[in-house]
C-alpha cells in the first residue's frame, strides 16, 4: 500500500475535526457496538475459512446468485486480489487507469507486474480500473458509459465504494452479473462508516468469481467483521445522513471556500471534492490547520496528475464546515 492516504490523524496531536477521510464521521454505531458486545465470544473460535454466510446475505439483499459474490477484507483487498488473479493467468494483461484516482489500482498492478499501458496495446489484454464515484474528484461515470467501456476493454473493474454518497445513477449488481467482463467492487466499510472492521465484496459473473476464489487465502475476513456485516445488512441499518441534505451542505461548503481568495474548489457529485490553494502548498495549509485549529484535511498532492497545491475535503456538520472556512481564511490573510 502506498503512503499518503487520508485519515492520518496519528501524525498530529489533538485533531478534533477530520475532513481528511471521505467516510461520514458522525455515524451512530451504538446498535452495532451493542450487538458485537453480545457476540464477542466469537473471537474464541476461527471464523469461516471463507465468509459464505455473509455472501449469502449480500446475494439475497441484492437479488443475485450467491456464486456471484465474494467477500473480502475491505475493497482494498479486493483490488489486490483482482490484480494478483489476472497476473497469474497465462495471458498477458495491461492496466488502463484514469488519473487522478485511488492510488491502490496502480500500486496493486505494479506489485503483481501488470504494466500500465495505453489501451490500444495489441499485445496484452487491457483491464480498465474505474473508481465511481471517483476518489478524489467526486465525478461519476454513467452506467451507459461503463457498458461502453465493457465493449472496449477485456475487463472493467468498477470500484463503487462511495456509491451510497451520491445521487447519480450507479451500475446495478444485476448489470454486473449479466455482463461477461465487469467486476464491481463494494465497501461495507464506507456504507456503514466502519473502516476499522475492513469489509468489502466483489460482484461479478460467476465464472469470474470462481476464478478469483482460487487465489483467496483462508480466514482473510475475521469473525467480528462477518458478524457485523450480516447484522447490518439483515437489519437494514442506515448510518449515513439524509443524502439530499448532506450534498446540499457539500455545495454550500464548496461555494464558501470559493469565496476565499487563493482557493478554488471543484464541482463534485458526492460528499467530497478537490480544491486548490495558491500561492501556498496543500502541505503548508494542512500543517497550519492541524497545529493551529485541530483540523485535518487531505493533502492530495500525491495523486498522480495533481499538484502540490491540491487538497481534498469531505463534508462534515455545518458548524464544523464553517470552522474550516474561517480557519482557511485566517491562513490566507
Please give the number of β-strands.
Answer: 12
- Low-confidence parts: none
Number of helices: 12
Oligomer: single chain
Into which percent range does the helicity of residues fall? 25-40%
Q: C-alpha Rg, in Å?
A: 20 Å
Give a quick precis of the structure.
The chain is α/β, with parallel strands linked by helices and 333 residues long. It has helices at 30-38, 52-62, 74-87, 104-111, 143-152, 173-178, 188-191, 206-213, 223-234, 243-258, 282-293, 318-332; strands at residues 17-18, 69-72, 93-97, 125-131, 155-159, 182-187, 200-203, 263-265, 272-277, 295-296, 298-299, 310-314.
Task: Write a structural description.
This protein has 333 residues and is α/β, with parallel strands linked by helices. The chain has twelve helices and twelve strands. Strands 2-7-6-5-4-3 form a six-stranded mixed sheet, sandwiched between helices. Helix 2 packs parallel to helix 9, helix 3 packs parallel to helix 4 and helix 11 crosses helix 12. The model has no long low-confidence stretch (mean pLDDT 95).
Amino acid at each position: 500500500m502506498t503512503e499518503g492516504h487520508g485519515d492520518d490523524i496519528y501524525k498530529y496531536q489533538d485533531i478534533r475535526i477530520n475532513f481528511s477521510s471521505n467516510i461520514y464521521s458522525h455515524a451512530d454505531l451504538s446498535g452495532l457496538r451493542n450487538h458485537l458486545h453480545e457476540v464477542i465470544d466469537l473471537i474464541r473460535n476461527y471464523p469461516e475459512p471463507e465468509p459464505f454466510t455473509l455472501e449469502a446475505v449480500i446475494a439475497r439483499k441484492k437479488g443475485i446468485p450467491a456464486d456471484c459474490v465474494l467477500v473480502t477484507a475491505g475493497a482494498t483487498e479486493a483490488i489486490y486480489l483482482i490484480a494478483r488473479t489476472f497476473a497469474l493467468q497465462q495471458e498477458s494483461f495491461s492496466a488502463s487507469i484514469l488519473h487522478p484516482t485511488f492510488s491502490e489500482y496502480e500500486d496493486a498492478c505494479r506489485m503483481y507486474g501488470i504494466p500500465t499501458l495505453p489501451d490500444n496495446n495489441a499485445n496484452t489484454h487491457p483491464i480498465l480500473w474505474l473508481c465511481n464515484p471517483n476518489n478524489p474528484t467526486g465525478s461519476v461515470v454513467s452506467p451507459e458509459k461503463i457498458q461502453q467501456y465493457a465493449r472496449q476493454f477485456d475487463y472493467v473493474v468498477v470500484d463503487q465504494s462511495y456509491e451510497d454518497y451520491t445521487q447519480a445513477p450507479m451500475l446495478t449488481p444485476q448489470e454486473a452479473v449479466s455482463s461477461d467482463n465487469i467486476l464491481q467492487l463494494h465497501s461495507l466499510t464506507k456504507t456503514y462508516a466502519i473502516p476499522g472492521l475492513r469489509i468489502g465484496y466483489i460482484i461479478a459473473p460467476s465464472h469470474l468469481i470462481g476464478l478469483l476464489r482460487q487465489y483467496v487465502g483462508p480466514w482473510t475476513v475475521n469473525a467480528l467483521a462477518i458478524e457485523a456485516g450480516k447484522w447490518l445488512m439483515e437489519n437494514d441499518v442506515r448510518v449515513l445522513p439524509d443524502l439530499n441534505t448532506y450534498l446540499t451542505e457539500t455545495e454550500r461548503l464548496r461555494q464558501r471556500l470559493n469565496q476565499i481568495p487563493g482557493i478554488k474548489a471543484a464541482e463534485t457529485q458526492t460528499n467530497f471534492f478537490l480544491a486548490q490553494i495558491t500561492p501556498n502548498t496543500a502541505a503548508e495549509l494542512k500543517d497550519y490547520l492541524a497545529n493551529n485549529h485541530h483540523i485535518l484535511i487531505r493533502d492530495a498532492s500525491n495523486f498522480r496528475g495533481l499538484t502540490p497545491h491540491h487538497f481534498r475535503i469531505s463534508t462534515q456538520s455545518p458548524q464544523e464546515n464553517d470552522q474550516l472556512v474561517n480557519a482557511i481564511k485566517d491562513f490566507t490573510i
